Amino acid sequence: LAGLTSFGAAQAADPLPSWNDGETKQAIISFVEKTTKEGASDFVPPEQRIATFDNDGNLWAEKPIYFQLLYVIDKVKELAPQHPEWKQQEPFASILNGDPKKALEGGKPALMQLVAATHSGMTGEEFQQSVKKWLATARHPETSKPYTEMIYQPMLELLSYLRANGYKTFIVSGGGIDFLRAFAETTYGIPPEQVVGSSLKAKYEMRGDKPAIVKLPEVDLIDDKAGKPVGIYQNIGRRPIFASGNSDGDFEMLQWTTAGRGPRFGLLLHHTDAEREWSYDRKSHVGQLNKALDVASKEGWTVVDMKNDWKVIFPWGDRQGTPRQ
Amino acid sequence: LAGLTSFGAAQAADPLPSWNDGETKQAIISFVEKTTKEGASDFVPPEQRIATFDNDGNLWAEKPIYFQLLYVIDKVKELAPQHPEWKQQEPFASILNGDPKKALEGGKPALMQLVAATHSGMTGEEFQQSVKKWLATARHPETSKPYTEMIYQPMLELLSYLRANGYKTFIVSGGGIDFLRAFAETTYGIPPEQVVGSSLKAKYEMRGDKPAIVKLPEVDLIDDKAGKPVGIYQNIGRRPIFASGNSDGDFEMLQWTTAGRGPRFGLLLHHTDAEREWSYDRKSHVGQLNKALDVASKEGWTVVDMKNDWKVIFPWGDRQGTPRQ
Ligand SMILES: [Ca+2]
Ligand SMILES: [Ca+2]
């Protein structure tokens, strides 16, 4: 019985079992311990323990392309019968011809047309239902897993570990806020009110005798790069003490977070594992990591080397099909 | 000892001691009990227990005028030496001549000029410091109490009661979000991330070698009337099941809240006590309550008759100077 108890204690002593022992894991644990130890000089009161996490390529994967774009593509196909004009009209025509890359050559205006056609004109509740329905059946083109299983096991443990230590965890993503809210609570344990993302404007109107919030085809906030600290300030109202991201889109969020007084932690995930996940950084179109990688050491940010720091990638295994050990 | 224990239990049995027994108090308690009793048909899972509260005239008083306007007036006077041109320039000139009523005759453009001059151009952190400093010394013109003591004791009890039952309490106010955030946590126990309010746009920039969020003189959201459900949707991401307000500015918030499926509660505070607080409704410039009062009964909203439903007004007593019983 005594042996059983001490085995239990040893298990409980590792809050991050999918992280390999080493400097990265140790840096995270030291930070959490020093900020939560009452009386310590680095103690942070619970209400100030705000931790923000980027989503794409940070909590879930982002290859071959942002999953939200795959939703847009599927949705354009689903809506096409109601829009015969799309056959002759870019960027829709290229999507329907199976050439999304060409569709996206139209840059931001093309993307905005696609977002407007698939993300607006319905109520917020209808949009979220549509996303939930898609997530229930769509599969990742390479692993054939649901997108909500393309999530990183070590990050799930980190979210739980922070919450167990009185941290409030937020998503701060360039992705659409309503898209994220459709799965963040069940997938990550992060409730809608703790999601910050890019957003469209919305209006309140009566639909018959029922009031509704209707999404408009007009951008409210692009929650990326310098938009991230702005989104955090407007939605959360205070500076995080812990921020985690994986690309140059997170540069300003990490910079603002770690420039504050007192203990601060910046975590930068570097995709280095071509076998178990994907390997990409400076030249990638999706999740480019260049400038932030250059300054990480000078800024005191902790860089996660996915290949060496992570024992497990996805909850079920890795990209090669090797099941979780 | 047994007597002591049952006395303790009896005390604990009244979660709203400053509310007189009657239909209003009973309606609140019945709602909270049925939504939190596991297995009951009206049970609501904790994560959906979202309660939103208007602030001015609902959590704290709003007479003779919105307290945030009194901050604006004091701030204009404080800043005047740096702006000699204000002596000849409306709406500033009238403020400096002690005639704020005339200054506000300029309507929305005048108000926006005053807000821009006093709420923008500094960092969010600097603005909040300024508000905190003001709240520490400014006094209500009639009661001579700090504004943060012009709060309603029965509403403090309601906030605590809801939170003790797993509700997450939010402020949803037409007032400025950063102004509210400067005192909501210490005064109401509502953290910055649970405050929704009117907001200015903001930008991220370097000030020397330090990054900062700077408030811009441009409106982002007017969180009033139809702006309230929009602000709730964008910031909280789901429909409340409990909403509380006191004026026509809360009409759409209550309408949207109570039109949802399942158990819903709309609470409308009617200022009926000219002696202990103020009495006003349909013709008041501040906190006008007209349309919402007309439909309250049809919509099933519970109207608080302040005079009859509240045993105590402020934590320290009432407007007459009668100390709290
Ligand atoms: Ca990312
Ligand atoms: Ca009000």
Record keyword descriptors for this entry.
homodimer, 325 residues, alpha/beta, 8-stranded mixed β-sheet, 8 strands, 17% strand, globular, disordered N terminus, binds calcium ion, HAD-like_SerB (chains A, B)
Number of H/I helices of chain A: 14
**How much strand of chain A?**
15-25%
C-alpha Rg of chain A (nearest Å): 21 Å
Q: Estimate the global geometry of chain A from the Cα principal axes.
A: globular
The chain-level structural class of chain A is alpha/beta
The helix/strand order of chain A is: HHEHHHHHHEHHEEHEHEEHEH
Largest sheet of chain A: 8 strands, mixed
Give helix % range of chain A: 25-40%
**How many beta strands in the DSSP annotation of chain A?**
8
Please report the two chains with the greatest interface, counting residues with C-beta closer than 8 angstroms to the partner's C-beta.
A-B, 36 and 35 residues
Low-confidence stretches of chain A: 1-11
| End-to-end distance of chain A | 28 Å
What's the overall average pLDDT of chain A, rounded?
A: 95
What compounds sit in this structure?
Answer: calcium ion
GO molecular function, one term (chains A, B): hydrolase activity
Keywords (chains A, B): Hydrolase, Magnesium, Metal-binding, Signal
Protein name (chains A, B): Haloacid dehalogenase-like hydrolase
Pfam family, one (chains A, B): HAD
